[in-house]
Amino acid sequence: MAEFFQLYVAPVAWIIGGILAITVPLLLGVAYLTFAERKVIGWIQLRRGPNVVGPFGLLQPIADGLKLFLKETVIPASANRIVFVLAPMITFILALIAWAVIPFGEGLVLADINVGVLYLFAISSLGVYGIIMAGWASNSKYAFLGALRSAAQMVSYEVSIGFVIITVLLAVGSLNLSDIVMAQNGGILHWHFLPLLPMFIVFFISALAETNRAPFDLPEAEAELVSGYNVEYSSMTFAMFFLGEYANMILMSGMTVVLFLGGWLPPFDMHPFTIIPGPIWFVLKIMAVLFLFLWVRATFPRYRYDQLMRLGWKVFLPLSLVFVVLTAGFLLVFDLLPVAGGGK
Amino acid sequence: MNSFVDLLISLPELFLVLTAMGMMVAGVYTSAGKAYTLISNAAVLSLFGAIGLVLFAKTGTTLAFNDLFINDGFAQYIKIILLLAAALVILIGDRAVRKIKIAHFEYPILIIFATIGMMLMVSANDLMSLYVGLELQSLALYVVAALNRDSLRSSEAGLKYFVLGALSSGMLLYGCSLIYGYAGTTSFTGLETAVAGASNISLGLLTGLVFLIVGLAFKVAAVPFHMWTPDVYEGAPTPVTAFFAAAPKVASMALFVRITMGPFQGMADQWQQIIIVLSILSMVLAALAAISQTNIKRLMAYSSIGHAGYALIGLGAGTKQGTTAILIYLAIYIVMVIGTFACILCMKRKGNSVEQINDLAGLGKSHPAIAAALLLFMFSMAGIPPLAGFFGKLYIFLAAIEAELYSLAVIGVLSSVVGSFYYLRIVKVMYFDNLSDELDSVTGKRISVIISLCALTILLFFLSPSLLVDSASTAASVLFEK
Amino acid sequence: MMVQAIAFYVFAGVTIASAAMVIGSRNPVHSVLFLILAFFNSAGLFVLMGAEFLAMTLVIVYVGAVAVLFLFVVMMLDINFVKLRQGFLQYLPIGGLIGLVLIVELLMVVSGWVVSPAGLKTAAINSQAIDGVSNTLALGRLIYTEYVYLFQASGLILLIAMLGAIVLTLRQREGVKRQRITDQLDRKPEDSVEIIDVKTGSGV
């Protein structure tokens, strides 16, 4: 009995504890990201933003959540029921399981797998299914158009994201996310965003497109498609899309931080900064990137669809491709290639 | 440096790949009107350049790229045929390609890539490199078959070729995986020892070999795996059909020889039966089915099936003499086919191509020169002495008799007698039928030169057959000296 | 390990079941979704075998890219699948017969599974020791050294696929107005605005 406990129950309990420790703060973070979005955009547009529910409007996301929770779930009569219900679940679950490999601090990671980057890339490439399934199953023109746009957009930008990731991998020599962070050890000057600045920018913009955020939020372009792939959704099914979308935003910010901004490492490798624990730095950096997401949304008008595709295929793809070659050539010529197996 | 030597061994292929890529870039940056002319000329030049590289390459057997690639006299012999065929096809197709508006600059490039694929096939020394070469060839050919995208029949030809080609590739791959599973290696050298070393042939290896042969039989269009041939030959644009009839056939046949005479030599008793059945079926069915054809491209399709059957006799013999006979046959076949298709490409009425046999009526009076050339090619294909085609068949039948395959030789002779009927029918239509609407006069210097060269080769071959026979037997001996 | 065994049977079972559903389901979109499920579970099987790199590439390439395009095409096509299936029953006997023959052959082949000893020896020479090296590294070493020829040749195949797709589909239509971004960016006020002093009452 004791052996059984040791072999199965304890590890399972440990893993479940780990999952809860990630998802609960994550969902809270999502809730307050929506709040932050409304506040930040409010301030940028010289408004106040939500300020009625609770002190400074802090209870607003709770109230929103409650409202969605209590509403009736409507499934359109002509919808494909199973796929219709499955779609938001897929979006939501995918947004959560990607976090399994994100390192919050040294050793603070649920699954420290060898191919962490590929795992993240794989999961984020699956995100398109939730949307395309939703669009198809709704049996509605607007939803379908939104889904098609979104799918094409996500597939296009994934290509350049892939190449950007390769440039980072070239510099690190490992696909493990902790190794990638540790390769940036030694202060802000060693973070990847400086030597790979063009790729950092390409990655950030592609992340905007990948998460269907402004200025690339054509899938839900309110003016033309009412709300895109999720028009027919209501109540909890809608909430799951909503949560998934914002969780994806946080995830992409997390990826940006891990790949380019030194993960949990402090910006300066000296006394006052090293006191603050790694996870806090990590969260702070994610928040900074998230602020950029919101800032962009409040500042830029929406792209036209053909321009969006042009940017992805004719600008980012060649640029990132050239940069892969440049990086590899540079590392080879100056003999800086990382030793196979990890670390610099 | 070791890798540098590897590159040197595969220099002709490398040269073609690089020039083809260069042409792709050049084609994009040239204005649409001039691109085709520029690229097709460059393509012909680079193909001839590759022939030069093959000719002046070091003789003797050399392995490269971790034994995946082999360059020997056999491969060089076939490569020269292939490159020559590709260059001639681009040259004779020039006007027709412009006429049917498929003069995209990509066409010669695709032909080059298909040729590269065939060269890789011929130089394969491993099941994996075999497959990669085969796919490279097939993919390029699927595209050129459908090149005339405004024509429903061309698209249909491309699609049919693609579906059946994919099926055959699947079979071949399945065979390869079985062979790998049972022999434990994909390398030809390894397979040879595995086959020779085994006390009794395992059933799995045999099944794998059968699937491999089926896949290859699809590619050479041997009956009963020939169904795609007439439709694809008819539907594809005529210059492309000329290429189909010439190069891929030779390459696949060479691969056939390389595999059966190389790694699976030890299993000759097993595969010989299959080859003999394939050969008999191809010869008989082609001879009978061709009789009722009215479209000359379909007729050529059946004729090519028949020729595959004759070539397979040499393989069925399983001897060095048989292999030499195949190599001679293939070289002569290429000349006949290119010449015939050059004549077909000249068949035009008021600027539009015609391809019915009846359209040839009265050609003997209106265009005596071209009719004479076509007469030569048809007689040669029928195997009438003293033309080259006769010698091709002669060597094949001699090899069969030497190997004591008397019934095979007899069936071969009989079916070639039946087959000569449809070749002679064309001659009859040309010379004895009444003149219908007159065909346009031949335009283009290049095509006339090529036709006359082919016709002269066919006509004067008997003067010194040793030129070809010697090099063929040297090439064949490579496979047998171990 | 029991957990691994359970995981294997779950992944394998779902793979086979969803593969059957790919053929069996009435709705083509469902078929594609089941195909994706099958891919996904095969990736799980790869992970169980310790081939994590292959597993992730399978998901990225097949699920993330190929199947999306599949789904795209199937959703956009308006094919009457009921009509397409009408011939199915007609060809069922002969198809079934061929399938049966193949199965019998396979059983015969598998029952006689003998790997030649010489082959085993050659196989042993070729395989390197990969202990203590991550999957990605081991694959990379093989692909970029021993099999570089195949790698490059496969690259050529993909190049042709691209070339072919462009040749067969790209149409240069006449009279289409295209946006030229560089021209737009090059535009200066002098090119487009003219400032004229107009005398009062005279007009332009």
Descriptive notes:
- The complex is a heterotrimer of chains A (344), B (482) and C (204).
- Chain A has helices spanning 2-44, 60-70, 81-97, 116-137, 141-172, 177-182, 197-210, 222-225, 235-260, 271-275, 278-299, 305-333.
- Chain A is mainly α.
- In chain A, helix 2 crosses helix 9 (235-260).
- Chain B is mainly α.
- Chain B has helices at 2-9, 11-29, 32-56, 73-99, 106-122, 127-145, 152-183, 188-197, 203-220, 228-235, 238-261, 268-289, 296-317, 320-346, 363-366, 368-382, 388-402, 406-432, 445-460, 466-480, and strands at residues 62-64, 69-71, 348-349, 352-353.
- Chain B has a two-stranded antiparallel sheet. Chain B has a two-stranded antiparallel ribbon with strand order 3-4.
- The model of chain B has no long low-confidence stretch (mean pLDDT 89).
- The model of chain C has no long low-confidence stretch (mean pLDDT 82).
- Chain C is elongated, with a radius of gyration of 29 Å.
- Chain C has helices at 2-24, 28-48, 52-76, 81-84, 86-111, 117-126, 135-146, 148-169, 181-186, 189-192.
- Chain C has 204 residues and is an all-alpha fold.
- The A-C interface holds A 8, 80, 83, 113-115, 118-119, 121-122, 125-126, 128-129, 132-133, 136, 144, 148, 151-152, 155, 158, 162, 175, 306-307, 310, 340-341 and C 3, 27, 29-30, 33, 36, 52-53, 56-57, 59-60, 63-65, 68-69, 71-72, 75, 133-137, 179, 181.
Rg value of chain A: 21 Å
Number of domains of chain B: 1
Largest sheet of chain A: none
User: What is the subunit arrangement here?
Assistant: heterotrimer
Give the uncertain stretches of chain A in residue-range form: none
Q: Number of helical runs of chain B? A: 20
Strand order of the largest sheet of chain B: 1-2
For the secondary structure, the number of strands of chain B is: 4
Helical proportion of chain A, percent range: 55-70%
Mean pLDDT score of chain A: 86
User: What fraction of residues of chain A sit in β-strands?
Assistant: under 5%
Question: How many separate domains of chain A?
Answer: 1
Give me the secondary-structure category of chain A. mainly alpha
